[in-house]
């Protein structure tokens, strides 16, 4: 059993339920949701015994936060590009064709231990975990947590829209103006995307546009659905391109997560990471 942090309860004026305990007493737990999950996983001990959210705390009790059981890891030996890495987090360049996570062996999550170093901090996760998802067919930057605290803070930052993700796509047709904002709901949920046209090209007598996409919200297939609604679907999108067809030098979806901008959860420095245009985008554009 690895103790991540431990302290004695003091200063309470009356008994307090564990679920209502002041989170500032924890270094590595920053939200009530994270506390409840840790309790459910039996990572919170009171006087060295498993507990529940209904436990009443009194002065003098000892609260221990322990690491979870280290089950045998499923490691998928897929080499991926590591764009950034420190003790707390990493950013990788996810290849298209693999799900981020899920009930499969060949996922990006299962490939992370093969590519990243384990954190040396007390709250190191047994295995690094993605803190957001990219579709199976989407390539590009994926943010990964390596410690419990980083995972909690990055997840909270995503919920509060404090992390900016930018995408590139090649779409059918010419857009009517260089910047478009679409706020069409998706699955009855609010959704907003900002589209900026970078270039327009004619290839084999057909018109295509290279665009930057900034999703303000994060609905499933949001970018793909919004571009379909505008009648400018993404090249290679088997789900949403409808009757739009063209010959492609490379198969797959022409959508890339190319930029991440966020405040580092631990040292509070601004991090902005960019990657180059993918090879298949270049090959297509060179036909212009």
From TrEMBL:
GO terms for biological process: pseudouridine synthesis; RNA processing. Transmembrane segments: none annotated. Residues 90-228 form the Pseudouridine synthase RsuA/RluA-like domain. It comes from the Bacteria. Signal peptide: none annotated. One of its GO terms (molecular function) is catalytic activity, acting on RNA. InterPro entries: PsdUridine_synth_cat_dom_sf (IPR020103), PsdUridine_synth_RsuA/RluA (IPR006145), RluA_PseudoU_synthase (IPR050188). PANTHER family: MITOCHONDRIAL RNA PSEUDOURIDINE SYNTHASE. This is tRNA pseudouridine65 synthase/23S rRNA pseudouridine1911/1915/1917 synthase. It comes from Psychroflexus salarius. The lineage of its organism: Bacteria, Pseudomonadati, Bacteroidota, Flavobacteriia, Flavobacteriales.
């Amino acid at each position: 059993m690895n103790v991540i942090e431990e302290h004695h309860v003091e200063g309470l004026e009356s008994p307090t339920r564990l679920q209502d305990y002041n989170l500032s007493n924890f270094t590595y737990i920053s939200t009530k949701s994270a506390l409840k999950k840790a309790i459910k996983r039996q990572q919170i001990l009171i006087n060295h015994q498993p507990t529940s959210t209904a436990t009443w705390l009194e002065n003098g009790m000892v609260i221990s936060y322990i690491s979870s059981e280290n089950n045998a890891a499923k490691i998928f030996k897929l080499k991926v590009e590591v764009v950034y890495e420190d003790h707390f987090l990493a950013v990788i360049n996810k290849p298209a064709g693999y799900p981020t996570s899920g009930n499969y062996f060949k996922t990006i999550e299962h490939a992370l231990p093969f590519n990243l170093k384990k954190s040396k901090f007390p709250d190191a996760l047994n295995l690094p975990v993605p803190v957001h998802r990219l579709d199976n067919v989407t390539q590009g930057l994926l943010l990964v947590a390596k410690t419990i605290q980083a995972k909690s803070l990055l997840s909270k930052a995503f919920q509060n829209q404090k992390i900016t993700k930018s995408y590139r796509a090649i779409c059918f047709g010419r857009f009517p103006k260089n910047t478009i904002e679409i706020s069409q709901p998706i699955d009855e949920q609010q959704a907003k995307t900002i589209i900026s046209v970078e270039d327009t090209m004619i290839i084999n007598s057909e018109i295509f546009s290279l665009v930057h996409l900034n999703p303000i919200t994060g609905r499933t297939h949001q970018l793909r659905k919004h571009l379909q609604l505008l009648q400018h679907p993404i090249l290679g999108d088997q789900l949403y391109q409808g009757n739009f067809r063209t010959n492609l030098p490379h198969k797959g979806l022409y959508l890339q997560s190319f930029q991440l901008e966020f405040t580092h959860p631990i040292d509070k420095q601004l991090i902005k990471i960019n990657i180059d245009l993918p090879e298949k985008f270049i090959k297509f554009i060179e036909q212009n």
